[in-house]
RNA sequence: GGCGACAUCGCCAAGUGGUAAGGCAGAGGUCUGCAAAAUCUCCACCCCCAGUUCGAAUCUGGGUGUCGCCUCCA
């Protein structure tokens, strides 16, 4: 398996630290708002990464933090005339609801920054003791000059940056690029006691502490997040960890590309934000998933109505072909037929190549075509259906398969439905098109689609 | 200014030296009272120029264009 590693800027063979085990960590949300479609991309993508490792027989431990101490949360609390804690609580709940609706499995660990303040203080003390950090009037900074490998992840050289590039002017800092580890308390802010007085941790320490704690090691396999986190967040995380352990925090650093909205960068000033919550009202979760996976994770991707519509149609096609063969999960006594083994191998090859999900999806469409062209061979088409569901499952599709494949009518009676179909057929014989169309249209409104086929009128749930 | 990514059909997208997958949309046929669904068929020399090579979308150089990071924004 090959993974593009931001640290080396190359695709590399994936070699886990412990055989057959993967320890991965992805940066989670800052809980000050409903998360948007751009935030959703890494959540979905790393969910797929985890699935795929499991599919390939790895034992995966996946941890993700929740940032519940942050300026943005404090500001939001002031804005809403609410408390810091209430805001965090509200949006943690929203985060969990929305990821669940998106069909994203919960990580094995999902700790909050506020749970490990003591450990963060310990980390900062250690950095200070070893000369990587210094205190100025209650603030503690990491000294980038003390860690000679600073910049190794992002490829930035600290002295190279243009003087004009905006770097916070702060006379207390020894070097303009030094970043905050501990912030002195300001009035009205949540604070904790520390050796440097009351204050709160900066953003970059929590991920170091949480990842090492929950993955139970100084250095783990995969660290992921959006490209924007490469610098400064991940650079700074790594600097803290590696300064102390002489090992990179993670061996492989994976970063997903951004999402644009109709060709433009998502931004507050353009007011082109879409929350996952809002999009879920219009499109189903698997259409959103298809949209993310239809392009390689490192590429930028454009969000627009047309694409979402296409994604929606594409996913429906997966289901409709399964419906057409009345798919039922079968227990395979032996391995797949040679033609299907080949398709499975293609899928694995695509995913092994740095998670080429777009290519993997095309294998699913191949299977759709195979199923369509082999409907006469019931056993084989069911077998192909099995593989489609198996591979789709790795990508996180078919979560709703039971519900969609059954023709449960709920409060509509099946008998009444067949009576209506009879009446409509009589009307058709008498060329009473007004009545027959009314029945067809009204049923469609109830989610029942009539299909006039050669073998008579059939129906299916939409 | 520094660092980096990308440019393939109307849209999305695979392809990494051997003569352009797939999806959506579209066109036409079958089926139908009409429609939907289904089904069959059709639909690209790969941003430009030069080079390497028997052979390049794929490699090299140069253009042009788009985008990202350098701001605690995934």
Topology:
Layout: E1 2-5, E2 10-13, E3 21-26, H1 37-55, E4 59-64, H2 71-79, H3 84-101, H4 117-129, E5 133-136, E6 139-142, E7 179-184, E8 199-201, H5 203-214, E9 220-226, H6 230-245, E10 250-256, E11 259-261, E12 264-265, H7 276-282, H8 285-293, E13 301-303, H9 305-324, H10 338-352, H11 357-372, H12 378-394, H13 401-405, H14 414-429, H15 433-445, E14 448-453, E15 456-461
Helix pairs in contact: 2-3, 5-6, 8-9, 9-11, 10-11, 11-12, 14-15
This protein binds one RNA strand of 74 nucleotides through helix 1, helix 6, helix 9, helix 11 and helix 15.
Key attributes of the depicted protein:
alpha/beta; four-stranded parallel beta sheet; 15 helices; 462 residues; RNA-binding; elongated; single chain
């Amino acid at each position: 398996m090959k993974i593009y590693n931001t640290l080396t800027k190359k695709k590399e063979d994936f070699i886990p630290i412990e055989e057959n085990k993967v320890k991965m960590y992805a940066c989670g949300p800052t809980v000050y708002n409903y998360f948007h479609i751009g935030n959703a991309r890494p959540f979905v993508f790393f969910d797929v990464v985890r699935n795929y490792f499991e599919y390939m027989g790895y034992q995966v431990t996946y941890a993700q933090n929740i940032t519940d101490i942050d300026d943005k949360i404090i500001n939001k609390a002031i804005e809403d005339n609410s408390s810091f804690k209430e805001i965090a609580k509200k949006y943690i709940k929203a985060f969990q609801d929305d990821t669940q609706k998106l069909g994203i499995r919960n990580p094995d660990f999902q700790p909050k920054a506020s749970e490990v303040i003591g450990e963060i203080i310990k980390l900062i003390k250690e950095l200070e003791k070893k000369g990587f950090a210094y205190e100025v009037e209650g603030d503690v900074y990491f000294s980038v000059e003390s860690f000679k490998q600073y910049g190794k992840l992002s490829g930035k050289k600290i002295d190279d940056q243009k003087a004009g590039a905006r770097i916070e002017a702060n006379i207390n800092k020894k070097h303009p690029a030094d970043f905050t580890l501990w912030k002195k308390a300001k009035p009205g802010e949540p604070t904790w006691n520390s050796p440097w007085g009351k204050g709160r941790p900066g953003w970059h320490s929590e991920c170091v502490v949480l990842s090492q704690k929950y993955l139970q090691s100084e250095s783990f396999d995969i660290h992921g997040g959006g490209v924007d986190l490469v610098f400064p967040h991940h650079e700074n995380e790594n600097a803290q960890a590696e300064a102390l352990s002489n090992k990179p925090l993670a061996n492989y650093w994976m970063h997903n590309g951004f999402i644009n909205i109709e060709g433009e960068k998502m931004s507050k000033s353009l007011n082109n934000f879409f929350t996952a919550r809002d999009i879920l009202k219009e499109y189903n979760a698997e259409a959103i998933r298809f949209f993310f996976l239809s392009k390689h994770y490192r590429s930028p991707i454009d969000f627009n109505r047309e694409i979402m519509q296409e994604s929606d149609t594409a996913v429906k096609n997966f289901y409709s072909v399964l419906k057409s063969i009345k798919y039922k999960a079968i227990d395979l006594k032996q391995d797949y037929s040679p033609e299907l083994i080949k398709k499975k191998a293609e899928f694995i090859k695509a995913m092994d190549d740095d998670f080429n999900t777009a290519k993997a999806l095309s294998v699913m469409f191949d299977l759709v075509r195979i199923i369509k062209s082999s409907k006469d061979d019931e056993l084989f088409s069911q077998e192909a259906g099995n593989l489609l569901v198996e591979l789709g499952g790795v990508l996180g599709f078919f979560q709703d398969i039971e519900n969609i494949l059954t023709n449960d009518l709920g409060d509509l009676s099946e008998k009444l439905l067949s009576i209506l179909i009879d009446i409509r057929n009589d009307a058709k014989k008498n060329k009473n098109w007004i009545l027959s169309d009314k029945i067809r249209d009204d049923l469609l409104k109830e989610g029942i689609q009539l299909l006039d086929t050669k073998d008579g009128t059939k129906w299916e749930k939409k």
